[in-house]
Amino acid sequence: SLREGVPLTEYAVQQWMMQRITEAGLTAAHAPIVAVNGHAADPHYGPTPERNAAIKRGDFLLLDLWAKELEPDAVYADITWVGLCTDAVPQRYQHICDIVATGRDAALAYIEGEMAAGRLARGCDADDACRRVIEEAGYGDYILHRTGHSLGTDGHGNGANLDNLETNDTRQLMPGTAFTIEPGIYLPGDFGVRLEIDVYVHETGIEVTTLPLQHEIIPLLR
Asked: Would the pTM of this model clear 0.90, i.e. be above it?
């Protein structure tokens, strides 16, 4: 639409995504998040018919979507990717993405290391491993939520969360459970980067079920 000059809004894209989810035979309790620019800096934002922005060339864009199969015991998948409505990505955007991706990967590495040593990682410690990277990069004040949450038949499950910020979740990441890793840096009124992946815990290790991992902001008009 942007290439063809067709007017586009956050709400229109959200509704298009919701239709695709339904057509794929999936269900979602809530519509996806489609957020441009300053809206992406608010992790609680979601477009509505009354409150949504136009999507224009040059805009930063965050997409967060979740869905599950229609089976009674189906577990949710939940992912977030970011892009720029341009043919190239300025360094100021990629710089933030690099930090967030490094934090995400630090949480993964911590959990993998614990399991390789025969231990189950605690949610709070995995959160610390991720947030430490962001804090050391100078963006600790721009972390607005925990690193991740449990996944289940509801989008937010009953297992351990990657959280030592909102709560001190000392529960272990148990085999047979799944969770998200979704760190974010949110720059008020400007933009926010959140990179969300899903992880399943096996008896002897973990599996990222939402590959590939995003490391670079996507130039959507390239």
From this structure: yes
